[in-house]
Amino acid sequence: MRRYPIHDDFKRYARLVPPITRQALPLLRAAQRLLPLPSPKKADVSLRRVMIRQGVHSIEAQLIEPMKHSDPLPALVYFHGGGFVLEAAPYHYAMAMTYAAHTPCKVLFVHYHLAPQHPFPLPAEECFAAYLWTLRHVKTLEIREGTIAVGGDSAGGNLAVATALMARDRSILPPCAQLLVYPVIDHRMQSASMRRFTDTPMWNSLLSRKMWQFYLPSLPAEHPEYASLLLARLCTIFRRPMWKAHSLTVCTMKGSLTRRRCALPVSLSPCMRQKGRCTAMTSCRTVRSHRTASRSGSLS
């Protein structure tokens, strides 16, 4: 972590990386429920629980309304982040309350079903259903017509974009605006930052890879660049030079690590800065330098 200029306000989280696994997710969700939620009264808003029907599922949502403003008001249908796998955290509620009180507007805070138990397309369909429900209840909710926006952070930003596209494709009145806070909208993960930030605290590209695999289970278990990301992470942990990485006794099959020695996939070769020939058991190809591969942007 020393190579990242982490601000002092964030130092308390500098060693925190959530374990996003099927076994750990129930514990993470249970821990989240123990956290205190922000007070609506202090935020000058009121909360009202609503239930939205979507097929055989019921979608729970909360309608957040500012106290000191008269109706009708604009509305924001908001989808929280959490990598598609975690419930809303206290700061999600705090952001939604801030939007409601200071815009001012009414915020429909949607609790969509989570992956991996409920992968795509169910969360996207539920978020679209919440938007459609808001459109159909403009008068009863006292919302100003034509002023319904969608928004979300991280995975919620993805769901907001999906909702807007679904409205367009299904000939439904589109949202008047989109509020996208660091949305995740590219599952290919081929950008320079995704290759670089493999071990940042709180969240990093390796966790994003797991997130996408939970939400889109049809993706291959191992993308071509996944092994390179994993190797970079291991080199950081063990503080080893990249050119010596071929000697690590790890197995990257399906993203798991084992004690047995195995050959590294050819896709790892761009991360090895060895001149000459690769010593991996399955390959004797000449290995290009990491610097050359980085300039070309190639992972093959």
For the largest beta-sheet, the strand count, sense and barrel status come to: 6 strands, mixed
Query: How much of the sequence is in beta strands?
Result: 15-25%
Helix and strand string, N-terminal first?
Answer: HEEEHEHEHEHHHH
Helix content: 25-40%
Q: Provide the CATH top-level class of the largest domain.
A: Alpha Beta
Number of E-state strands: 6
Any idea of the CATH topology of the largest domain? Rossmann fold
Which strands sit side by side, in order, in the main sheet?
1-2-4-3-5-6
| Structural classification | alpha/beta
Radius of gyration: 23 Å
Give the mean pLDDT. 79
Poorly predicted residue ranges: 222-231, 237-300
Quickly count the domains.
2
Distance, first to last CA: 28 Å
CATH superfamily of the largest domain: Alpha/Beta hydrolase fold, catalytic domain
Summary tags:
300 residues, alpha/beta, Rossmann fold, 6-stranded mixed β-sheet, disordered C terminus, hydrolase
Question: Topology, please?
Answer:
Layout: H1 25-33, E1 45-54, E2 57-66, E3 73-79, H2 90-102, E4 106-111, H3 122-136, E5 143-153, H4 155-169, E6 178-181, H5 192-196, H6 205-215, H7 226-238, H8 290-296
Parallel strand pairs: 3-4, 3-5, 5-6
Antiparallel strand pairs: 1-2, 2-4
